[in-house]
Structure to design on (317 residues):
């Protein structure tokens, strides 16, 4: 939790996507004194409207008061707009983000995917209003109006793929200055995006294929090879598309995955078990298509994407 320091210059913020990450960002920024709107609906919206947003952390907690707004409402001017929806919902919210950017907002995507900025630019968000973000924090919405952060890490890596938004980068640093979130500007944000994608997609791949948490996978004689192969496929696709990934990228991602507990399984498997739509096509499917475009084989990504798709509940089911 922050020390209660109020932002020197309160900024206007809109957060699009009220899951764990989006709600947590809205809560800590509202607690820091910024004017925060959270695009939200349903029971979560009612709870935030009635009693505020409860933020729980491993050490303490607080009650924040971002202003809930309906997704159907007209966007008001903002200094910064964060988007933290699932990757498959990006097209749905993109017109709102383009409208916010047209009014001067810096748009910061925090969702998983290597093509998010391309999709936002195609939807009308100008290059000079776009700052790429990679969030290293884990938060879950545990009940209406309640968000719980897991672990001590709170790190946001930002950058501009086009190198055209130095002022936007500084705005993000200023925004989080009164909070405990560490903000780092990357020399090449594409490298950070692909390293995060390797972690997320490798987890989705090995758990999507097996239907198991990490413990049973690690216990199997072939589990290590499965993990290493999934990581290698993701990074090979990135290098095939000209991303300057470091020589030790594979070992760095491997160490990150080894740090997850035995009981861990990714949101793809959680959504699959809960009968909800997954992000597997946006993760493994996108990487498989990108691999085909540059002649990089992706058999494990293909298998996981196919396996999850065939087990995924659709509205027609």
């Amino acid at each position: 939790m922050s020390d209660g320091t109020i932002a020197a210059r309160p900024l206007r913020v809109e957060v699009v996507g009220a899951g764990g990450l989006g709600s947590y960002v809205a809560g800590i920024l509202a607690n820091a004194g910024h004017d925060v709107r959270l695009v939200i609906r349903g029971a979560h919206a009612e709870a935030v409207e009635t009693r505020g947003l409860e933020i729980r952390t491993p050490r303490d907690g607080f009650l924040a008061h971002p202003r809930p707004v309906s997704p159907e409402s007209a966007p008001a001017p903002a200094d910064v707009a964060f988007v933290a929806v699932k990757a498959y919902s990006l097209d749905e919210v993109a017109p709102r983000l383009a409208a916010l950017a047209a009014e001067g907002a810096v748009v910061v995507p925090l969702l998983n995917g290597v093509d998010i900025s391309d999709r936002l630019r195609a939807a009308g968000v100008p290059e000079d209003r776009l700052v790429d973000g990679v969030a290293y924090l884990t938060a879950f919405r545990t009940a209406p109006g309640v968000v719980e952060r897991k672990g001590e890490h709170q790190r946001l890596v930002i950058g501009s793929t086009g190198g055209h938004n130095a002022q936007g980068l500084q705005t993000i640093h200023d925004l989080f200055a009164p909070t405990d979130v560490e903000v780092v500007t990357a020399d090449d944000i594409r490298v950070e995006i692909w390293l995060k994608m390797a972690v997320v997609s490798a987890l989705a791949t090995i758990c999507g294929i097996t239907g198991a948490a990490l413990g049973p996978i690690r216990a199997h004689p072939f589990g290590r090879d499965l993990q290493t192969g999934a990581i290698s496929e993701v990074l090979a696709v990135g290098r095939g598309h000209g991303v300057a990934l470091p020589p030790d990228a594979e070992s760095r991602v491997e160490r990150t995955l080894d740090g997850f507990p035995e009981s861990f399984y990714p949101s793809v498997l959680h959504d699959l078990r809960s009968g909800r739509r997954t992000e597997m096509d946006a993760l493994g499917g996108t990487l498989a298509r990108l691999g085909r475009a540059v002649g990089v084989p992706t058999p494990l990504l293909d298998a996981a994407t196919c396996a999850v798709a065939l087990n995924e509940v659709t509205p027609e089911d």
In short: The chain has a mean pLDDT of 92. The first strand starts at residue 12 and ends at 16.
